Amino acid sequence: xxLAWHDDDVSATVATLLADVRxxxxxxxxxxxxxxxxxxxxxxxxxxxxxxxxxxxVW
Length: 59
Description:
It is a single chain. This protein is mostly helical. The chain has a domain at 2-40. It has 2 helices and no strands. The chain starts with a helix and ends in a 25-residue tail after the last helix.
């Protein structure tokens, strides 16, 4: 879907996805700074994904 949105332009698609990741990482950092540990019962967000248990699907 992302590739179709960019009229099959791979470079534009990758650039947009990287910009989205950058934005979401920034939002996660802001959220981490704003929330208390009590609110999340000790949970702390991670910036990197743990792919050891991830289901990877190929379209």
